[in-house]
Fold this sequence. Notes:
- The longest helix is centred in the middle third of the chain and has 16 residues, at 132-147.
- Strands 3-8-4-5-6-7 form a six-stranded antiparallel β-sheet. It has a two-stranded antiparallel sheet with strand order 1-2.
- It contains eight helices and eight strands, in the order βααβααααααββββββ.
- Helix 5 packs across helix 7.
- Strand 4 (195-199) and strand 5 form a beta hairpin.
- It has helices at 19-30, 43-57, 67-73, 75-80, 89-102, 115-120, 132-147, 159-168, and strands spanning 12-13, 64-65, 172-173, 195-199, 205-214, 218-226, 236-243, 247-250.
- By secondary structure, it is an alpha+beta fold.
- It has two domains: 12-73, Orthogonal Bundle (Muramoyl-pentapeptide Carboxypeptidase, domain 1), CATH 1.10.101.10; 89-250, Alpha-Beta Complex (endopeptidase fold (from Nostoc punctiforme)), CATH 3.90.1720.
Amino acid sequence: MLLEPLPPFMPCARGANGPNVKRVQEWLNLHGIGCDIDGDFGPATDAAVRRYCATLSGLKYPGQVTDLLMADMEAPITRACASFPAVEFLTAVVRYAEQHLAQHPREVGGQNMGPWVRLYMRGREGAEWAWCAGFVRYVVEKAAKQTGTTLPFTLSFRCREIARDAKAAGLFIEGGARPPGPTVHWPGTIKPGYVFLKRNGKGSWSHTGIVTAVHDDHVETIDGNSNDEGSREGYEVCRLIRGYAKLDFVVPA
Length: 253
């Protein structure tokens, strides 16, 4: 069962404290209105909400964060997870990855923290929860649900376990540098919508993402928990260009 994009929210106002207030503060920061993420709805948070209403939403601030106001703050997740007209499975994988990229998912409040991380990691967050595989899992499962596709195995939150399960299912494609020669066309079997795994040189894998375009000597990807340098422990969803030398691939269905 997929985690619902938006868990229930209880309206809150000045003087409140707890997880609902922290959620408001996270989204204020994600919208570029900085305030402490401490779960305390004090004067600073009240002023930040007023600024959000005045400059970003156009909604009147009624003195509390209502369901309507919270939905406005969380609209990026709603847009990222929205369904679309019927397409085949691999196209849907790429389409969902693109939709999420367009909303600029990123961490907030610390390493591997914030509402986007919790979405991809089924409520988990924190330094120990690198979320690249969670992003892949969420996108692939949403595409499967959208298209009525049965997945051959459940994608793990760990890269090495994805590789293990894909090998057991016969859906692992060992990559490598493109062989030399003008007539060689490799990898002819890699398709947009496949999952890549980045080898770490120690017989395991350190990062994963979605292939969005395939070329003779490189692929284009959308990765979670990365950055412009292609880090395995970044802070956002981003688009990258990668050579084949360190990549293996998984057929998701």
